[in-house]
Amino acid sequence: MGVLVVMRGGGWARAVRVVGVVVLLCVAWLQLALPPLPHDPQSVLGGSARETPELDPALNFQRNPSSKFLKSKTQTSSSSSGSKLSAEQILEIREQIQLRSGNETVLNEELFGPVQPDTIVHNRLEYLRHLIVSLAQARDIDSVLLIFSHDYFDEDINQAAQSKCVGTPDLYKHYREARFTQTKHHWWWKANKIFDDVWILKNHTGLVLFLEEDHYVAEDFLHMLRLLAAAIPRACSKCSLITLGNYLKNYNFHTDARKVEVTQWVSSKHNMGFAFNHSVWQQIKACSTKFCDHDDYNWDWSLLHVSNTCLTQKLHTLVLRAPRVFHIGECGVHHKKKDCSSRAVLIKVHRALQAGQRTLFPRQLVVVHTPPKKVKKHKGNGGWGDKRDHALCRSFSVSTSPDSNIINSLVIMGSMVSNSSINSSTLVRSGS
């Protein structure tokens, strides 16, 4: 666009006014004609009606590079807008899942070199952002291979399926609900996939650590995992699991940062940030019928059932008193609240970690043997009475192909704890 101003009689004052008006008109036209600039926060987030992602209280958003993981991205896919997918779109998604799972692409290998496989695994976006930020700040995270597994279900599809085939009721006379059964299916599929069907992990015999999307890790969680792994032969030869998290409401890093308890594994206490190796997995997998047929939609309670009824020796664990994995989720399958914000929990976690900053990365562990407690026999929580779920669950131990009729999962390959030596010492004592 060009503008020609012809000077006529009337003086400079009139000319200046004319030029000023023309400039203003040009600026207004440019604002209307050009697309929004990328630094415009309203245009990036889609206007004020879009939900603003909650920032991690520990981050200086302007200076910390990890803050990029908290930014929202414009959603353009038809599935995110709530519209139904066509048969062609579903087919394309399935092909992409199979392609990505088969490729086993390891990201950033050209930057950090080959990894020593172990694994972190797991869907609610806000919580997942905070988990990724905490992972990004952890020491030695550049030596880790991460596996993110995703599950997804559509309520309309679930209701349609239920209306056509009711199935078999559970022990409480309730019929199948897909939003509950999918959690156990996903965990069992994921474990089978990682231990037995990921080519890059075929020679890996070390630990695999399981994390959920609403977990948050301390910066020394990898250090503690290695320290605990090194301590097992001397501190607890019967321990087959390591647990980095707990559900204590209060914890004191100054007194408990080095303390680790030896105890029998209990699903409701030790299912957060727990790890085990391939040999333990083989024992669990051998009891797949016990896991898959147990009438409980919770994978952890089903694993406890395996421990109590099938394994030659019940599962025991080393569990940290001062956790390095924290639960920040306020809403989920088992909990519904009006406010699902994780901010209050995050602030508590950050304060605890800051107060105990000097106690992180200990070189020594104090192992505490607690007296065994009698575990009550648990008949199951139900939600898993349908024979089709039993059959599908057992089929995962044969094949974890992404062509499964019920679960389509995307697995981005990655891995974790190296078997490198660590200078450590372990103190073993009884008492608290």
UniProtKB/TrEMBL annotation:
Which reaction equation describes what this protein catalyses? an N(4)-{beta-D-GlcNAc-(1->2)-alpha-D-Man-(1->3)-[alpha-D-Man-(1->6)]-beta-D-Man-(1->4)-beta-D-GlcNAc-(1->4)-beta-D-GlcNAc}-L-asparaginyl-[protein] + UDP-N-acetyl-alpha-D-glucosamine = N(4)-{beta-D-GlcNAc-(1->2)-alpha-D-Man-(1->3)-[beta-D-GlcNAc-(1->2)-alpha-D-Man-(1->6)]-beta-D-Man-(1->4)-beta-D-GlcNAc-(1->4)-beta-D-GlcNAc}-L-asparaginyl-[protein] + UDP + H(+)
- Residues annotated to bind Mn(2+): 214, 327
Transmembrane segments in this chain: where?
A: 12-34
This protein's record includes keyword Secreted: no
> Its domain of life?
Eukaryota
Q: What GO cellular component entries does it have?
A: Golgi membrane; Golgi stack
Name the PANTHER family on file: ALPHA-1,6-MANNOSYL-GLYCOPROTEIN 2-BETA-N-ACETYLGLUCOSAMINYLTRANSFERASE (PTHR12871:SF0), BETA-1,2-N-ACETYLGLUCOSAMINYLTRANSFERASE II (PTHR12871)
This chain belongs to which protein, by name?
Answer: Alpha-1,6-mannosyl-glycoprotein 2-beta-N-acetylglucosaminyltransferase
Name its species: Homarus americanus
